[in-house]
C-alpha cells in the first residue's frame, strides 16, 4: 500500500481520497476548506496542514483542483513540486488547459520529478463508486507504476500519450457532455411543452436512440431519475461554471487547431448565458433553466 498526499478534496477529490483510504492506502489531505478536510479526517485520512505537508514524504501526490489557475498556484507558486521527494509521482487529476498541464510537466521534469496529467470522467457518482475513467498523459512507464494508486479510484485507466494528452482527451469528452446535457434539456422542455409526461419521456428516451449517460445521470427535471442533482435543487454534482470552463477549453483548443466545432460553440454560448444569469454554482443539468426561461 502507498503513502498518498491529496490536495483538493471537494466534490470529486473528497470521495476519491476516501476510496484510497478504504483501499488501505495511507492518505494525508489538504484543502483550503476546513470542512472538506474534516470530512476526510473522519474517514481515516490525516490532515496534512499545508500544500508542502501533503506533498512531502509520499509515494504519490494527487491533486484535484478547479482550474489551471489553482494547479499553477499549487505546483508552481506554492512549490508542491519542490516539496515532493525525488521519487514521488505527481498526478494532477484536475481538468485544466493543455498549455498549463505541459508547463507543470516541464517544471516537474526540470526538478527531476515524474508527473502525469490524469483528468477523470464519471462525475461524482463515479468518484463515489470508484469507477472513474482516468485519461493519462506523460511517460508510459510512470503511468504503469501509478496504476496501483489510480486503480483505487477508477476502473478504466487509459494511457493517452505524452504530456497534456490526458487533458486533450478530457476536453473532447466534455465537449460532447456539454452538448448532450443541453440537448437533453431542450428535449425535456419541448416534450413537456407539447404535453408529454416527464416520466413517460424519460422511459422512452432511456430505452431509445437518445439514451445517454447524461440523460440517466443528469436528467434535468426532478422525478424520473431520483438520484440526479435536479432532485436536490441542482446542488452539484458538476457545477455549471466548471462545464463552461471545459467548453471554453475545447473552443480555445479548436481555434488553435483550426477545427470547426459548431455544436461545441453553441453549447459554450448557452452555458455562458446561464452563468451570467447566476447559475454557475448549480449543477450542469441546471442549464434547463435558461432553455425554459427560468420557469422551473
Ligand atoms: P470542487 O470545487 O468541489 O473542489 C475543488 C477543491 O479544491 C475545493 O475543495 C477547493 O477548496 C480546493 N482548492 C482550490 N484551490 C486550492 C488550493 N490552492 N489549495 C488547496 N485546495 C484548493 O470541484 P470538483 O467538482 O471536485 O472538480 C475538481 C476538478 O475535477 C475540476 O477541474 C473539474 O472540472 C473536474 N471534474 C469534476 C467533475 C464533477 O462531476 N464534479 C467530473 C470530472 C472532472
Entry keywords:
296 residues, Rossmann fold, N-(1-d-carboxylethyl)-l-norvaline Dehydrogenase, domain 2, 9-stranded mixed β-sheet, 14 helices, 50% helix, binds nicotinamide-adenine-dinucleotide
Mean pLDDT: 96
- Number of DSSP-assigned strands: 9
Let me know the largest β-sheet.
9 strands, mixed
Residue fraction in strands:
5-15%
Which helices and strands, and how do they pair?
Elements: E1 3-7, H1 13-22, E2 26-30, H2 34-42, E3 46-47, H3 51-55, E4 60-63, H4 68-77, H5 80-83, E5 89-92, H6 98-110, E6 114-117, E7 120-121, H7 123-129, E8 132-138, H8 140-150, E9 154-161, H9 165-193, H10 198-205, H11 213-217, H12 240-257, H13 262-276, H14 288-291
Parallel strand pairs: 1-2, 1-4, 2-3, 4-5, 5-6, 8-9
Antiparallel strand pairs: 6-8, 7-8
The protein binds nicotinamide-adenine-dinucleotide.
Written overview of the protein:
There is one protein chain. This protein has 296 residues and is of the alpha/beta class. The chain folds into two domains: 159 residues, Rossmann fold (3-Layer(aba) Sandwich), CATH 3.40.50.720; 124 residues, Orthogonal Bundle (N-(1-d-carboxylethyl)-l-norvaline Dehydrogenase, domain 2), CATH 1.10.1040.10. Helices cover 50% and strands 14% of the residues. The protein is built from 14 helices and nine strands. Strands 1, 2, 3, 4, 5, 6, 7, 8 and 9 form a nine-stranded mixed sheet that branches. Helix 1 packs parallel to helix 7 and helix 9 crosses helix 13. It is globular. The protein starts with a strand and ends in a 5-residue tail after the last helix. Bound molecules: nicotinamide-adenine-dinucleotide (NAD). Nicotinamide-adenine-dinucleotide binds next to helix 4, strand 7, helix 7 and helix 12. The site of nicotinamide-adenine-dinucleotide has 28 residues, from helix 4, strand 7, helix 7 and helix 12.
Amino acid at each position: 500500500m502507498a503513502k498518498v498526499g491529496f490536495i483538493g478534496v471537494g466534490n470529486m477529490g473528497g470521495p476519491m481520497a476516501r476510496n484510497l483510504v478504504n483501499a488501505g492506502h495511507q492518505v494525508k489531505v489538504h484543502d483550503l476548506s476546513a470542512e472538506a478536510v474534516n470530512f476526510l479526517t473522519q474517514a481515516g485520512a490525516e490532515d496534512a496542514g499545508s500544500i508542502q505537508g501533503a506533498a512531502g514524504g509520499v509515494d504519490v501526490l494527487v491533486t484535484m483542483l478547479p482550474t489551471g489557475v489553482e494547479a499553477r498556484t499549487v505546483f508552481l507558486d506554492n512549490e508542491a513540486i519542490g516539496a515532493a521527494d525525488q521519487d514521488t509521482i505527481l498526478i494532477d487529476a484536475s481538468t485544466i488547459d493543455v498549455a498549463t498541464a505541459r508547463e507543470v510537466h516541464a517544471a516537474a521534469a526540470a526538478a527531476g520529478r515524474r508527473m502525469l496529467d490524469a483528468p477523470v470522467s464519471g462525475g461524482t457518482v463515479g468518484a463515489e463508486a470508484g469507477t472513474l475513467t482516468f485519461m493519462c498523459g506523460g511517460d508510459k512507464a510512470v503511468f504503469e507504476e501509478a496504476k496501483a494508486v489510480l486503480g483505487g479510484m477508477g476502473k478504466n485507466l487509459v494511457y493517452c500519450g505524452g504530456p497534456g494528452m490526458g487533458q486533450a482527451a478530457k476536453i473532447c469528452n466534455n465537449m460532447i457532455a456539454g452538448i448532450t446535457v443541453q440537448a437533453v434539456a431542450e428535449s425535456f422542455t419541448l416534450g413537456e411543452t407539447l404535453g408529454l409526461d416527464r416520466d413517460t419521456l424519460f422511459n422512452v428516451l432511456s430505452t431509445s436512440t437518445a439514451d445517454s449517460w447524461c440523460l440517466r445521470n443528469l436528467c434535468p427535471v426532478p422525478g424520473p431519475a431520483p438520484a440526479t442533482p435536479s432532485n436536490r435543487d441542482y446542488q452539484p454534482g458538476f457545477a455549471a461554471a466548471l462545464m463552461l470552463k471545459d467548453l471554453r477549453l475545447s473552443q480555445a483548443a479548436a481555434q488553435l487547431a483550426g477545427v470547426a466545432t459548431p455544436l461545441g460553440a453553441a453549447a459554450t454560448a448557452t452555458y455562458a448565458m446561464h452563468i451570467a444569469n447566476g447559475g454557475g454554482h448549480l449543477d450542469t443539468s441546471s442549464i434547463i433553466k435558461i432553455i425554459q426561461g427560468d420557469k422551473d
